[in-house]
């Protein structure tokens, strides 16, 4: 079975092409656990399946390294768009992708016939607490109180098809994300667990982000998290609506447009391909 390895700002994925091979009777959660293991597998922040769709140009399924299936993946879908276009499964621009969080439009930025970047219409942010979901009676959920690991933190909650807990912090030097990340991810406030973003506001047009992803752990980038962080930053009066998000793996451009949609622009890069034995 062939596989491809791709990344968006260091957020890396193992791709399986199910246009060109039989779907088979795979246990995908277990396959994700095996393939994403960095010592005993290929290594990655997730497994992405590229599938035919009856309602879009192609369908994307994502599995985290722990075997869970998230609703969406912002960095993964940019890689997905490049894969689908350059493999010839769709030659429209923009192309469409079916995901668990709906059908998304993907605008390809081309250099000759190669994809150099992708601008993704990420849709509208979800701010109702019951739809994020988060167990509070505040709408929108801005600067709510969270008791965790002996700390009293103020957080905002946004869904971009998957839940995010955003915490503003100007000093990252003492941030122990490996301790706080899993504790917040599994806090009873979040019935479906949550992604966790710590945000430093650098200027009205720039923020810096550290992320703990639900089902994955520390990653170098998170596209949906960057979008959620910009929404929280705007609603808290901290930034403008067009923001450069600095992540450990590089920068994303996020725009919260007047039509209430978030647009994310960033790269999608191949690293290698191989054969699973």
Which features characterize this protein?
alpha+beta, Diaminopimelate Epimerase, Chain A, domain 1, 16% helix, 2 domains, 4 helices, single chain, 277 residues
Description:
This protein is an alpha+beta fold. A hairpin with a 2-residue loop joins strand 11 (195-203) and strand 12 (206-213). The model has no long low-confidence stretch (mean pLDDT 96). The protein has a 17-stranded mixed β-sheet that branches. It has 4 helices and 17 strands. It has 2 domains: 2-122 and 265-275, Diaminopimelate Epimerase, Chain A, domain 1; 141-260, Roll (Diaminopimelate Epimerase, Chain A, domain 1), CATH 3.10.310. 16% of the residues lie in helices and 43% in strands.
In short:
Helices cover 16% and strands 43% of the residues. It is an alpha+beta fold.
Layout of secondary structure:
Layout: E1 2-8, E2 11-17, H1 28-35, E3 47-51, E4 58-63, H2 74-86, E5 95-99, E6 102-111, E7 114-123, E8 141-148, E9 151-159, E10 163-168, H3 177-185, E11 195-203, E12 206-213, E13 217-219, H4 223-235, E14 242-247, E15 250-256, E16 262-266, E17 269-275
Parallel strand pairs: 2-3, 4-5, 10-11, 12-14
Antiparallel strand pairs: 1-2, 1-17, 3-4, 5-6, 6-7, 7-16, 8-9, 9-10, 11-12, 12-13, 14-15, 15-16
């Amino acid at each position: 079975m062939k596989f491809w390895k791709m990344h968006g700002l260091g957020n890396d994925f193992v791709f399986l092409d199910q246009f060109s091979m039989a779907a088979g009777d795979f246990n995908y959660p277990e396959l994700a656990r095996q393939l994403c293991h960095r010592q005993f597998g290929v290594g990655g922040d997730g497994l992405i399946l590229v599938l035919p769709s009856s309602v879009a140009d192609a369908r994307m399924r994502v599995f985290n390294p722990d075997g869970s299936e998230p609703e969406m993946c912002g960095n993964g879908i940019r890689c997905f768009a490049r894969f689908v276009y350059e493999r010839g499964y769709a030659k429209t621009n923009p192309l469409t992708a079916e995901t668990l969080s709906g059908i998304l439009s993907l605008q390809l930025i081309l250099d000759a016939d190669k994809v150099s970047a992708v601008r993704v219409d990420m849709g509208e942010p979800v701010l109702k607490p019951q739809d994020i979901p988060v167990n509070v009676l505040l709408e929108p959920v801005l600067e709510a109180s969270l008791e965790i690991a002996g700390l009293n933190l103020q957080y905002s909650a946004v869904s971009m098809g998957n839940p995010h807990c955003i915490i503003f912090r100007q000093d990252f030097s003492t941030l122990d994300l490996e301790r706080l990340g899993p504790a917040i991810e599994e806090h009873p406030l979040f019935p479906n667990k949550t992604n966790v973003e710590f945000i430093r506001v650098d200027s009205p047009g720039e923020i810096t982000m550290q992320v703990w992803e639900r089902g994955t752990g520390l990653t170098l980038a998170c596209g949906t998290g960057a979008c959620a962080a910009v929404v929280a930053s705007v609603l808290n009066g901290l930034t403008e609506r067009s923001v450069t998000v600095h992540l450990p793996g590089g920068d994303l451009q996020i725009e919260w447009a007047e039509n209430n949609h978030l647009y994310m622009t960033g790269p999608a890069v191949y690293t290698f391909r191989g054969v699973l034995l």
